[in-house]
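quick one
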Amino acid sequence: MMANGILKGKRGIIFGALDENSIATYVAEACVAEGANIVLTNAPVAFRMGGIQSLAEKLSCEAIPADVTIMEDLENLLLQSMNILGGKLDFMLHSVGMSLNVRKKKEYTDLNHEWMLKTFDISAISFHKLMQQAYKLDAMNEYGSIVALSYIAAQRSFPDYSEMAESKALLESFARSFGYHFAKKGKVRVNTVSQSPTMTTAGSGVKGFSDFFGYADKMSPLGNASAQSCAEYCVTLFSDYTRMVTMQNLYHDGGFSSMGMAPEILEL
Ligand SMILES: NC(=O)c1ccc[n+]([C@@H]2O[C@H](COP(=O)([O-])OP(=O)(O)OC[C@H]3O[C@@H](n4cnc5c(N)ncnc54)[C@H](O)[C@@H]3O)[C@@H](O)[C@H]2O)c1
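structure w/ nicotinamide-adenine-dinucleotide:
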């Protein structure tokens, strides 16, 4: 895809680039290609793996560690980012998710509820924490755009997605609720993008992921949406071309969410 400079002069923070497969990595690259100045961030442990530093080098930007569950980390991140980028922010991507119960292979009917709370904190409440800090610090420019990545398990039952389904339902609800307040404060937009299954570290942690990936690909008339196309969609949401879009959960899934029956699935 040719870049068109539609984010020229805009400043943003991209959360969740862990390695070359992360959806956030694609979004960061697309934003820079479109002319944005960005700061990358991830959990302190992610910095030990090195992927984020090499991406920062490649894109000539700063990478700041922040645990999304810790308010002080978020405050420091926002203040430092505004300092580095030279002003208030125009966009933020929340591309963060992790389930302790999925990671520890607990069945949905036998979940550890302490872990569930931690899962909700990392995967959903962190979105509220981030927006609350940005709201208090007045860190967003007028018509700024905040996007979080979601999944259709928020609306429909996908048994192996486990407690991440409730995490995404909560995440999408925060987008609607905070979207109201942020629109009133400074015309800031808040949306979630409900993305197709994508081959990443978080994605492949889900049981039976590669079979399911193939199923979703057949079920979607356009096929699964790739991380690259997700990045391109996020760019449009950060741009001035979507200024009146807010409080939405936007499907970016090749048509999966509108399908009832796909003949392709029957062709074995
Ligand atoms: N891969 C898929 O199939 C798929 C589909 C729809 C939505 N999503 C969503 O996309 C987002 C990005 O996931 P991905 O698939 O690129 O996988 P990924 O594993 O590359 O990204 C998840 C990120 O969350 C970060 N993270 C975890 N705990 C954190 C914490 N406490 N503080 C800060 N960061 C933390 C990880 O370090 C990692 O960078 C997630 O919200 C995920 O649920 C993924």
